[in-house]
Specification:
Elements: E1 2-9, E2 12-19, H1 23-43, H2 49-94
Antiparallel strand pairs: 1-2
Helix pairs in contact: 1-2
Amino acid sequence: MQKEIQVNFRGKVIYVDAENVTPIEMNTIVRKVEEEMLAYEQKKIVPDTIKQLMYVAIKYGMQLYKYEQRELSLNSQYENKIDELISKLENLGSEDKLF
């Protein structure tokens, strides 16, 4: 289910392909990006919108990367625990004594 959502970003109207994202969620995302850009703009004397967008994109890219790495690690840990449980259950079954 892919749909376009109209977004007002820094006074410009753009349409964003947004899968499984509501307009309210998209506006929240846009507001966060604008806040990040404003924070960067206030640190610099001459605002450069392209650089601001690059810094924000890289910042969120790093956060996404870290999140994905944590998810992979957790999935690996869960798989190991499941494998341990299966092994213990198989060992119990081979000894013919469940209780």
